[in-house]
Amino acid sequence: MPSLISIAATASLLFAAQVYAHGYVQEVTLGSTKYTGYLPYSDPYYSTPPQRIIRKIPGNGPVEDVTSIDVQCNGWSAGGVVGSAPAPIYGTVAAGATVNFNWTEWPESHAGPMLTYMARAPSDITNAVWFKIDQSGKDSSGRWAAADKLVANKGIYSIKIPAKLKPGQYIIRHEILALHAAWTYPGVQVYPSCIQIEVTGSGTALPTSFVSFPGAYTPTTPGIVYDVYTNTGEYPLPGPAVWTGGN
Ligand SMILES: *[C@@H]1O[C@H](CO)[C@@H](O)[C@H](O)[C@H]1NC(C)=O
Ligand SMILES: [Cu+2]
């Protein structure tokens, strides 16, 4: 283990994290291999930073401007933390395998959907290169992917890498949209996480339509603006349809 420069600074930041109580992906399991996520309250304090497959994030707080570059991979560009900066390594996973995202304790108040995109690398990920592989909003009994199901499942959300996806390097962009203040805009809280992977297998499928981040969501997109307290109707999941060609 690399040594911590400042235990005290880390401890006080961890305390702050609990006070604000939002969240991020702290661990990801690709098939059967577990990878620790980028831990914003301890990784920066190591003299030799641990190498992660998840791109750096500024903390456990949200991105609230859906038109900002920060919405891509979770950054705080005003504070000099560009979430889209490449991570040093990537994980390996077979097409068709399960990916488990392990979120830090998610606040019950933060209701909203969970959506997962991928982009094939290398590419300029500010272009329209993203396709959606999974989404989960509100079910017919009013239970949300986050927080209801996520909390019941001990912070784990699972997806599958499309089984016929062409092998190669990709970025997974997994996110929660917290809607507790989204009756107006700004209000939605975006919690994206970008994970670098190499997909193995013999598939040949690739999607043909793509969206960009920023771009896929606008301040007037249904589902970006949504009143969770009074709207008992179906939740309109924002972004494109899920690409099913890889299954
Ligand atoms: C999620 O990650 C944390 C931190 O590594 C770990 O303590 C916890 O057991 C993990 N949760 C599950 C359900 O594996
Ligand atoms: Cu919060």
TrEMBL record:
Entry keywords, A to Z: Carbohydrate metabolism, Cellulose degradation, Copper, Disulfide bond, Metal-binding, Monooxygenase, Oxidoreductase, Polysaccharide degradation, Signal
A molecular function GO annotation: metal ion binding
InterPro entries from the UniProt entry: AA9, AA9_LPMO
Cofactor (UniProt): Cu(2+)
Catalysed transformations (reactions): [(1->4)-beta-D-glucosyl]n+m + reduced acceptor + O2 = 4-dehydro-beta-D-glucosyl-[(1->4)-beta-D-glucosyl]n-1 + [(1->4)-beta-D-glucosyl]m + acceptor + H2O
Example GO BP: cellulose catabolic process
Its EC number(s): 1.14.99.56
Signal peptide: 1-21
Matching Gene3D superfamilies: 2.70.50.70
Listed Pfam families: AA9 (PF03443)
EC top class, as a word: oxidoreductase
Stretches assigned to the Auxiliary Activity family 9 catalytic domain: 22-232
Family classification: Belongs to the polysaccharide monooxygenase AA9 family.
PANTHER family: ENDOGLUCANASE IV (PTHR33353:SF6), PUTATIVE (AFU_ORTHOLOGUE AFUA_1G12560)-RELATED (PTHR33353)
UniProt-recorded name of the protein: lytic cellulose monooxygenase (C4-dehydrogenating)
